[in-house]
Amino acid sequence: MSATTNSEMSNAAEEQGKPAGNSRRVIERLGEIDFDPGALRAKYNEERDKRIRPDGNDQYIEVKGDFAHFVDDPYVEPGFDRAPLTDEIDIVVIGGGFAGLLAGARFREAGLDSFRIIEAGGDFGGTWYWNRYPGAQCDIESYCYLPLLEELNYIPKEKYSYAPEIFEHSKRIAREFRLYDDVCFQTKVTDLSWDEASARWIVSTDRSDRMRARFVVVGTGPMSMPKLPAIKGIDEFQGHTFHTSRWDYRYTGGDHNGKLDRLSDKRVAVIGTGATAIQSIPYLGAHAQHLYVFQRTPSSVDVRGNTPTDMEWAKSLKPGWQQERRKNFNEIVHGKPFEEDLVHDGWTDLYRILADMFREVGDPSLTAEEASQIGEIADFKKMNALRARVDQVVKDPATAEKLKAWYRQFCKRPTFNDEYLPTFNRPNVTLVDTSETAGVQQITRTGVIANGVEYPVDCIVFATGFEIGTSLMRRSGFEIKGMNGISLSDYWADGIKTFHGFWTHGFPNCLVMGPTQKGLSVNFTSILDDQAKHIAYLIKEVKARGRFGQPSLAAETEWVATIRRLVVDNSAFFDACTPSYYNNEGHMAERGGGLTSEAYGKGANAFNALLKQWRDEGALEGIEIY
Asked: Is the whole-model pTM more than 0.85?
């Protein structure tokens, strides 16, 4: 559900390294290792090569035309209508997920009250409005993930919140900051164009709106557009289909807690075994007559170990506790040395192993190469433990072998679940491994073909995630046209160009939230909150000094150079990985590479410190005000 800086494992090791030394002493200092690193590397390469496809991101089809029904909203009553809006407002925020919610909250705090949020869904929540599949849950601890906990005096019920609580918290933010006062739900922006005569943005929508806005904030998120695999025959299936982000409880029965009683006589196929599938498959397996799980690449599945919140601990928290916790988590997962792990979860576990190994080696003169080698061995140890867990839980040895993840832990988003692996001990659940053909071969009118075998099914559930490697414009569903009618797609044709990741020369008063050319953290809500505060500052300052602002071409060029200069070169790490959205489906050199390739190399905390210093100086250096 959120973005991550998973590639920082190698960076974490290098942070510990010092000049001098030789690589042989690493193994000597670590003592006996009960595995062969060379054999594991060879196994990882073999498994990766089976799954790399020449079509990369093109293996997925755009959800439009004949496939548009996959993004229909199943949670609203049909027939909604309203009169078009042609008024003017100071700020339009596009997106009502956590980006839009946090922007609205921070605008209220800053006294920026003339704004409107436009959201495609029927309520606030974004990801947590759409993702209502059974078992949906955050995989970052809730005390870090749910924003504005201190401001709203709210403590989550459990360490890892389930979707209903997160959705309700989204609505709590909206109520507290009066975001329902001026919002357009069930509305999709279709075009965003700068009108130079009035220095306003014209915001067009599928409701025939033509609003005028002085500022626009694009907060559509990197995981807002469901993706579908371009499997031959996907449009021919005569049974029932849906995407997990539009779960069809009218077909399955039940709710988030399960009780999918309408599946008792249904043969169900799930295509995909990423984070969403890990959470929903146990419920499907418990209720379907038969469940077929079509897997190309297994996820690594660690212990979840969810626990109720200790309210005595909660009462002991001091003001500023959430920000302190977020900063600590961001620092650890970026690979910085740490003395205390406040969160102590599955994300930080590998870094704790790494820290223990450095203490075991006890040599301050390690080279970066030696430190990286220790990082790899720590990773091997962690993944060996996860593969051993599969053997401990899954009774059938052949099935267990197929469920083992043969790659570095942060090649794919790690998952945490205590019910997924036991599901494959059910007699009505069949794992269909498709690694030899790099995916499902065909969908017919009545079933799914894999490995030359057709599996007759009544329903196909696509647990195939969201578009990540595609362009902002494709994911958001609209083009942004700036000065002289130039589109952002054309301006970015030879590479993304921004200043501090927020705005682009020639696109005045247009501010974009998200990970691109900014600090990045696996805890996505924390970086969105920091971005919202910064955008509120920018808008207030531009309003006080002129009509509109944009970065100078020189400042933009310099920032892009800074991003390039500080980029952590993890190409070797990701080239050795199994294909996923982290490494652009195995094609790192295309479309700017994977998710982390445009991130600020020093991490989220350092990025925030840089922005604070820039704000404190007060000169808006690099910004042209008109």
From this structure: yes
